[in-house]
Amino acid sequence: MKYVLVTGGVVSGLGKGVTASSIGVVLKACGLRITSIKIDPYLNTDAGTMSPFEHGEVFVLDDGGEVDLDLGNYERFLDIKLTRDNNITTGKIYQSVLEKERKGEYLGKTVQVVPHITNAIQDWIERVAAVPVDGKEGPADVCVIELGGTIGDIESMPFIEALGQFSYRVGAGNFCLVHVSLVPVLNVVGEQKTKPTQHSVRGLRGLGLTPNMLACRSTKVLEENVKDKLSQFCHVPAANIFTLYDVSNIWHIPLLLRDQKAHNAILKVLNLESVAREPKLDEWVARATLYDTLQDEVRIAMVGKYTGLSDSYLSVLKALLHASVSCRKKLVVDWVASTDLEDSTANEAPDAYNRAWSLLKGADGVLVPGGFGDRGVKGKMMAAKYARENNVPYLGICLGMQLAVVDFARHVMNFPDADSAEFNPDTKTPCVIFMPEGSTTHMGGTMRLGSRRTFFEVTDCTSAKLYGDVKFVDERHRHRYEVNPDMVPAFENAGLRFVGKDETGKRMEIIEIPDHRFFVGVQFHPEFKSTPSMPSPLFVGLIAASCGQLDRVLRDGCNGHTVVAKQTISNGSLSPPVRENGHAKKQANGIANGSCHANRNGKHC
After folding, report:
1. DSSP states of 224-259 as a string?
2. Is 30 a catalytic residue?
3. Is 417 within 8 Å of 436 (Cβ atoms)?
4. DSSP category for residue 116
5. In this predicted model, which residue has the larger pLDDT, 381 or 438?
6. Does residue 600 carry a pLDDT above 60?
7. What is the pLDDT of residue 588?
8. Angstrom distance (rounded) from CA 40 to CA 89
9. In degrees to the nearest 10, what's the CA dihedral of 465, 468, 469, 474?
10. Nearest residue to 520 (alpha-carbon basis) of 489, 491, 534, 499
11. Given the DSSP bridges, would you call strands 429-434 and 448-456 parallel, antiparallel or unpaired?
12. Which listed residue (398, 431, 461, 605) is catalytic?
């Protein structure tokens, strides 16, 4: 097994996750099998109870693992399926060591950070790296490890010590360290400054790790004299110093690495030159070029409570992007804070209220994502009501589906006190109730989590057609509350169809309003399995309906199991591939996510 460690210096938020994923993509294009590990130094056992404002979205894996959002990047880039063990946290390591200590497995020795914690980290890495994640048998060829945080953080010290020991444990030729650092350009002088990176590398070397190569983030390409200076002071060959400058979309990042021969440098360090081929990234080039040429816009109003941080909805944004590119549309996301739609805001902040409703009414489609807590719930319900009454394409995910059901009960079925038991336990009309697969007292890891199967009860429905007329689909879940099954007959008599259910028929998974352009709600999270090479069918349906292409998509997608949601790109042309039994065929190469424009301001996410 070969290992590539990606660390970060100077500041956080440089894009270590994208860099690690892009390295994996280039190595995979060289014919190697890749797996990934993310190390998060925080004490939490997992990301499940962390605020999206503080840490971004919680990404959910097939096995129910609630993990860092970077694992979503790995899956989208590399077309792999990771497990909860691919996300290492300080909490997990200490928990495992303390459990062994309580069992007496250390034979009465004094349990210390060195060697017991550091050994546990190394053992975990070796064990997880050997687990195949690409659907094939046997371990991968290369494991890409990303160390979260910034060099110098106190909480990272045990991991840095462990990784320093690990580099000697696996031996020369099996370990490559890529350090991601910042080379800022001061506006006053317009000169690229190397001192921050020099200090970062000095700190890294002082902790026992020596970088084999530098990936330098900057606004523009590194000048040759800057490379020479970095090489001299950081003791890294100039040929091993690469620029990751700002690009129009991050689908270009693997291409930047390829063009700068980063793969050759990594393969040389890992002694893999004889077994690897030149990277084939034609599909990447075509996709990145296609995205840059898109002109026709489709506007989607994203109505949520965490709109102040786009990372809170990262997978939703990427799924929207994948779908918009498949429909050859340029995505424009209008962020609408759900609280701004509520009547209380009209009195307290009328400008924000008017702006929010203006964005909602100006959108081609509406998306209400999941969330927890009662803040902003009324605004989300108002968005669902607006889309339903005005025939605007709507996709509600998890809570977005539940609130659409509550709105339907209140304003179509005339149950004014209808509500979710999550927000009003004493409601006389509980449309959404707690379903007993988790705990009401413990929060972490107690929800209905991971991949679950949804069976289509109605074949002649939009959702089934988008999925390619399959009998079932496997999608990932993260919730505690679900639609009350006792009220389903009344809902269906009033015109709300429950077209997808679990194997017991008691858990409602997909809703539709038949006479609406596109009104779909799902209890699961389809965004977690969307990739550029295979966009989520439901997101494709939302985008297609929003730009008037839904009839074509449904017509083209009803031929056997073929759906327009997945395409192969060749010379810029799109052709529909195949979905089987609710599962998609794997591509030879995973494709990274691109970027999306928000509110016409030219900013990228």
Report:
1. HHHHHHHHHHHT--GGGEEEEE--SSGGGHHHHHHH
2. no
3. no
4. I
5. 381
6. no
7. 34
8. 5
9. -110
10. 499
11. unpaired
12. 398
- Angle, vertex CA 263, rays to CA 258 and CA 264, nearest 5: 115
Tokens 């270590």 -> residue: 16
Q: Which of 482, 527, 547, 605 is catalytic?
A: 527
- The Cα–Cα gap between 335 and 397 comes to 16
**Active site (annotated) includes residue 525:** yes
d(CA 83, CA 130): 12
d(CA 503, CA 415): 29
Dihedral sign (CA 347, 348, 351, 355): negative
Which run of H or E residues covers position 356? Answer: helix 350-362
Map tokens 């964005």 to a residue. 359
573: β partners? 570
What is the SS3 assignment for 39? strand
Residue 289 gets the label, from left (phi > 0), alpha (psi -120 to 50) or beta, of alpha
Rounded Cα–Cα distance for residues 26 and 591 (Å): 11
Q: How many CB atoms lie within 10 A of CB 359?
A: 20
Question: Does the CA dihedral 145-150-152-156 come out positive or negative?
Answer: negative
Q: Name residue 222's amino acid.
A: L
- For the segment 126-143, what is each residue's pLDDT rounded down to a tens digit? 999 999 999 999 999 999
Q: Mark whether 398 is an active-site residue.
A: yes
Q: What is the pLDDT of residue 190?
A: 82
From 525, 547, 561, 605, active-site residue: 525
- Model's pTM, two decimal places? 0.89
Does residue 125 contact residue 145 with C-beta atoms inside 8 Å? yes
3-state secondary structure of 92: helix
